[in-house]
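ok so i was messing around last nite and threw this chain in just to see what happens. nothing serious, just curious
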Amino acid sequence: MSIFVKNAWYVAAWSTEIDDQLRRFTILDEHIVMFRKSDGTVAALEDRCPHRLLPLSKGKRIGDTVQCGYHGLTFDGTTGMCTRVPGQTNLPKSAYVTSYAIEERHGIVWIWMGDPETADPAQIFDLPQFTNPNWAVHHGDALHVQSNYLNVAENLVDPAHVSFVHPTTLGNAASENVPVHVQTEGEAIVAWRWIRDAEPIGFFKNFGDFDGNVDRWHYYYLYTPCTAMIDFGSAPAEAAIAEDERDKGVRILALHFITPVTETYSIDRWMHIRNTALDDPKAEETMDRMFRTAFQEDKEILEAVQAEENRPAKRRPIRLAIDKGPLVYRKRINELLEK
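result:
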């Protein structure tokens, strides 16, 4: 059985990754050629000519059509239907490539990989903070991880790893024994914890400019199939803010859009939205630098785990109390796959 959920929206690329050139992307083990049409919208077609199977990305663009570089068959960039076969007037009914539904918003290109009849743009992940002037939006990088997308996603609903994987950036020893709370009702699986009256983590030592101890939080939201949001921040301990008063502190929403490439290769496109330093471009540079350090730590862990998963198993992995979020996530994915 496939490990990929087909009927879902995935991030295909940042908007800046797609221009008027033919470019190949691989999503759910499917090769797709994408380019911007003359009206600025994005075309996404199966990257394989139905004649001799040459990738269309090795052909050339003619207006809003793509011409195969082998025998010149030409395909419409919107419908995928063949519009020309050199040397003959009849167009075979089988002369077409799959065309994928695309939605572009907030500088993100989303693609629907399943039944086009069920593609509903209302299902695309969105946040009011994207357009709220009291928040700054900044795109980060595309992190390439040689690991299954399920492992990458599980890591993003797991606050317990932060103390050990990110001891100098996103965590420290103060949170090692703080229990993790998990909520599995609703659209997102949520795992969270608060660390009260503790030393700031490295991230906020560099960015938050706190003098003393802080109250800090981590809320991990995981949406199927593989979009995650981490709401984290800090406030001075003496302020004693409540859990629903996080906007009173330095608050950051780190977004992770995971694109499964193959069974053992994923791309994590990450960005952040912040409620502080709204007009400070140096803040973005500082955050990007710290995020890159932290996510490289995740990458090393996840790729090492994948390498072991690729080897014969001697016994089933044990499960701990902290695994509730990941276990519910796997169950939800299995239910979607069965559909």
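not much to say yet. The mean pLDDT is 92.
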